[in-house]
Amino acid sequence: MAITTAPADVAVVDDAAPQREFRRLPWVSFAVIAVLALVAVLAPLIATHSPTEQSLPDKLRPPAWQEGGSTKHLLGTDLLGRDVFSRLVYGARVSLTVAMFALLSGGLIGLAIGILAGYAGGRTDSALMRIVDATLTFPTILIALVLAVSLGAGLGTIVLAITVIIWARFARVVRGEVLTVKTRDFVALARVHGCSHVRIMAIHIVPNVLNTFMVLMTLHIGFVIIVEASLSFLGAGIPPPTPSWGQMVADGRSHIASAWWLSALPGAAIMLVVLSFNLFGDWLRDWLDPRLRQV
Hints:
The protein is mainly alpha-helical and 295 residues long. It is 69% helix and 0% strand.
């Protein structure tokens, strides 16, 4: 009986590959991030109360599902009778605002310095990397506390403090990518054709490090949110009465036994958001790197 075999050079198409890729997407992280963005943008429409409105007769009211709770305040009230749900909603806006401005300023500065250091090399690279090393030795919290004492606590102080530190993280990673990219043939051909250094960096280097840059941006969103919450917890962040998740955790720490929702709910929000952004960053890194995508 004759046995027929398929030619060796015929490619086998895996029809199930797109379905596997679809299932591997971090849908829970996508959902959390989408809800967070929606809540931050539509905070005035979603919040049931003003986040700063006080009602002392309603202070320390538990969530609606506990005895003594009310559907008027779904997640309870704080020490001044302010609605916890509304403060969580507006706190999401504060966290995303700080993350957006701090990452844009610090990320773009780090991208520019990393490209310049990696492409120029020599003394320029050494000098810039020593500045990066010195910057990374300073703790972010300490810098923020010093700036808060000097400039006053506020949104601008937090953004400035995070920018002062975070640019160095971007610069070091981007510089390592540039050292690899600048040795490739298309960069050598651009030099042969007489392209200027600025054109080579802008046209040939930047597009080849953008994947790494975007992954860094995503992975550092959680870091920035934690820093902002830590500063607000220490009193060097967003000043009252503007709601902030870190400030809400600090306000409820002395009543954790009797009014657990004051600290537990904003703490859970911080944990969930940071974990979602970190998982999304890990997936984005694997998806943008063909070598990791095959694993």
